Amino acid sequence: MMFYLIVLLILIALIVWMGQLVLSNPGIATITWGVWSFEMKTATLAALVLLACVSFYLLVSLLRHGFGMRRSFSRFRAARLGSKANRALTQGLIQLTEGHWDKAEKLLVDHAPYSDTPLLNYLAAARAAHMREAYERRDELLKQAIESDSKANVAVGVSQAEMQFGSGQLEQAHATLVRLRDLSPKHPYVLKLLAKVLYRQENWDALLGLLPDLAKQNLLKNDDMSKVQGATLKAMFQHYAKAGQTDKLQAMWKKLPALIRENHEAILLYAKALHTAGDDLACNSFISSILNKRWDDGLADLYGRIQHHSLGNTIQQAEKWQLSQPENNPALLLLLARLYNQQKLWGMAKSYYEASLNQAPSREGYLELAELLETMKEPENAQRCYRMGLRYCIRSEGEKLNLTPTQRPQVNPQTPPALTPYNGL
């Protein structure tokens, strides 16, 4: 402000000085233009020049003010439309939430050009079109969303894949997610959605290739992803197991990330696959290596079902595990019962079956013990075991198992009847 005041004072001083100079030196000024010639006093000429400068300044100021008003009006109009668009966005989202999808789409699309966030308008409008199953219109609105913000390719693509997956358009969702993965290979939600799509498609080969990336992103701890992992491994293991391709089964296991190979469910599935493939020797070695490190009831259960080439050594190993486990571990007691049963030491097997069932009743345990008691010619105890097993299957309530002692010496028959494999009640 002080600067402008000083400039104004200087201009006034200059004007006064020039005025005094002109008045103190009167004279005639002649202006010649072609054949025309004008004469006037110097003071008059100075006044005309000054008037012309002032007039020019006023004209320029007026023009600037006019254009400024036009810009101000444009800004005012844009602000008003923007405010209206923001209100329309809020109302559109409310209509979308309430299920009035036609109204929501119209509100959002009509005001998108004036919105501060047109991307949100188009995304919400696409969601409204999706909800009313207008899938072509949805994809058109998503295309407009990308045009409104070229940096939002991944965000728009994820929304599109989500909606395609939700509407059962699995092939389209797959194609969208593959394209997104090219744009952003490490995007965790893209990987998660792709895994879900492949799971629904039962595309186990592709899912198997995706498991390492899911493990790196630490996504397999999620319940849904654990389900995907389990289904993938089960399908692939069963494929090789049924074909008896143990070599491919083992090669596949070695290629899996360490995080998956340490997973309890994956370990159990692999062990069962080795057993199904008929390679009980490899299954025995694998389960032993795991149980030597940490105890697992599921593996112990399977270990008691497989065929062992050296039962004496296997029983010795199980007895070593017994030293490191609680005395009444029902899974370990059941394992020993099955091993002694395979070795035809039925008295020992009977004792371990009884001890295991009194700790943790099980359908398989009751059935196996009942069949063993029939082999041992103890029909009353066998019938009691059958009845208790049946009650347990119906009521899921265990009972104290007290077998009637027999005074007859137990003689193992030369050719005992084979025990019927248990496949579940």
CATH homologous superfamily identity of one domain: Tetratricopeptide repeat domain
Order of helices and strands: HEEHHHHHHHHHHHHHHHHHHH
The largest sheet has its strands arranged as 1-2
Query: What structural class results from the helix and strand content?
Result: mainly alpha
Give the name of the CATH architecture of one domain.
Answer: Alpha Horseshoe
Distance between the termini: 98 Å
- The CATH topology of one domain: Serine Threonine Protein Phosphatase 5, Tetratricopeptide repeat
Provide the gyration radius in Å.
Answer: 45 Å
CATH class of one domain: Mainly Alpha
How many helical stretches? 20
Average pLDDT level: 85
The tally of strands reads 2
Structural description of this entry:
With 425 residues, the protein is mainly α. It has a domain at 310-425: Serine Threonine Protein Phosphatase 5, Tetratricopeptide repeat. Helix content is 73%, strand content 3%. A two-stranded antiparallel ribbon has the order 1-2. Helix 9 crosses helix 10. It is rod-shaped. The termini are far apart. Mean pLDDT is 85; it is low at 409-425. Keywords: Cell inner membrane, Cell membrane, Membrane, Porphyrin biosynthesis, Transmembrane, Transmembrane helix. This is HemY protein. Pathway: Porphyrin-containing compound metabolism; protoheme biosynthesis.
